[in-house]
Amino acid sequence: MKYSYSFFFLLIALTSCFSISAQNSQGSKTIPVAAFQKLLNETKRVQLVDVRTPEEYADGHLQHAVNIDYEGDNFKKELERLDKTKTTMIYCLSGGRSASAMKVLKNEGFNDIYNMQGGIMAWQEAKLPLANRAPVPEWKGMSVADYKSLIAGDIPVVIDFNAKWCGPCKQLKPILDEIQKEYKGKIKIIPIDVDENKSLALSMYVRNIPLLIYHEKGKVIMNQEGMLDKEGLIALFKLRK
User: What is residue 80's DSSP assignment?
Assistant: First the structure.
């Protein structure tokens, strides 16, 4: 009987562990495009949210997605029209804003949240369809030939892929401006807005911004995603006065 009781309590403990594990399986997750699409198609109680600007949304979005602009003044207020008991799936252009939005949703009491890794750019790279896409030219913005002319020459060139809505990009800009000024003649730093040059960004597989691409004589030497302080960038670019 002693053994039976021990086994009984062990069974309860194991069951509790599995139950806790199952609960912890819910939460905030960032998943690849293929997994995102599969989950979207197979989940019955789901709400899909596009957290880009209304202008971006109008340029093409996932079918049945509602638009709640993460950068808008009423983002939290707009979340009130969503159902917290449903699975919530979110995306943006490249995954940055939606990752930040996911934290807000979690703080607001949403329990089952999925963010699409790489955003719309990764969705398009996978050649998946967009709804309500306005007719646009085959190529939008700077051409590849124009880009190649920018990175040519003997002076190293850093291309700064950014966007107006990107918070880290705004923080990085004055740092890059200082470096450009202090090391004039030793480096060129050229900003390129991904929204104004969507075709180029897609062709170069720009998935996260800010993205710095360092070139020497037209060849890519290194990429740097995200923020770095001034000293870190100077060291990365091997700049000396």
Answer: G
Q: Whole-number mean pLDDT of the chain? A: 85
The whole-number pLDDT of residue 181 equals: 94
Q: List, in order of start, the domains of the chain with CATH numbers.
A: 27-125 (3.40.250.10), 144-236 (3.40.30.10)
Per the listing, tokens 């009984």 go with 8
pLDDT (average), residues 109-120:
94
Cα–Cα separations (whole angstroms), residue 37 to 119, 138, 144, 180, 225: 12, 25, 31, 42, 26
Cα(153)–Cα(78) distance, integer angstroms: 50
Q: Are strands 157-162 and 188-193 parallel, antiparallel or unpaired?
A: parallel
The reported pTM is 0.61
The catalytic site residues sit at 166, 169
The length of the chain, given as a count of residues: 241
The neighbour count for residue 111, using CB atoms within 10 Å, is 15
How high is the pLDDT of residue 13? 40
